[in-house]
Amino acid sequence: LESLAFTVSAFDPALYMRGSTDGGFTYLLVYVDDILIVCSHVPILDALKTQLQARWAMKDLGEVSYYLGLNILRDRKQKKLWIGMPKYITGLVNRYDFDEADCPPTPLPSGFEHILEGELDTDSKDDALSPLLPKDQQRYYQSIIGAISFASSCARPDIAYAVGKLAAVNH
After folding, report:
1. How far apart are CA 17 and CA 38, in angstroms?
2. What are the backbone angles phi and psi of residue 6, rounded to the nearest 5°?
3. What CA–CA distance (Å, rounded) separates 126 from 74?
4. Nearest to 160 by CA among 144, 149, 145
5. Is-contact 52 58, C-beta < 8 A?
6. Hey, which bits of 21-161 come out as E strands?
7. Cα 49 to Cα 61: distance, rounded to the nearest angstrom
């Protein structure tokens, strides 16, 4: 890719970038044998695909609709893009035995303030904060928080605040 004038991002070694003389851009996101191409101009995109196909055996799957677990829907006329993870979220619901019917309308209730460890255990033998959950449930809680944290960073920024609040008591 560097021989095609791409430079690797300093922040993500899977991201390659290239500018054009007219101010356009091309980004390639590479993961093993999957490449997602984002380009400002269709003729540049077509030329790049030809260059890549000349060097490597590959097939063009057309406009992206699914990439690395993300469902991607685009409405070009309205200039809107939707990214979701329905398969991943459904997997979490099943893995952690959540009941979708009991899901609240918002990630956290209004005015939520997390409970600091130790607030519920006044019989602690020392000044150290004590856990709110028994040891066997702490790992389970941490597993759930890690799983939903991944979803919040990839496709659900609307739950990021709630996940951050819940992660604050991960220990």
Report:
1. 10
2. -90, 145
3. 56
4. 149
5. yes
6. 25-31, 34-39, 66-67, 70-75, 80-84
7. 11
**Can you read off the two tokens belonging to residue 163?**
């996940």
**Length, in residues, of the chain:** 171
* 54: helix, strand or coil: helix
Q: Report d(CA 130, CA 117) in Å as an integer.
A: 6
Q: pLDDT, tens digit, for every residue of 110-169?
A: 777 655 544 544 454 444 445 567 777 888 889 999 999 999 998 889 889 888 888 887
* Nearest partner of 38 among 25, 51, 52, 47, judged by Cα: 25
- The helix or strand, by DSSP H or E, that contains position 17, with its residue range, turns out to be strand 15-19
Tokens read off for 170: 């991960």
- Which helix (H) or strand (E) covers residue 147, if one does? helix 135-154
d(CA 62, CA 158): 29
Helix, strand, coil share (%) of the chain residues, nearest 5: 35, 20, 45
Gap between the Cα atoms of 131 and 58, Å rounded: 53
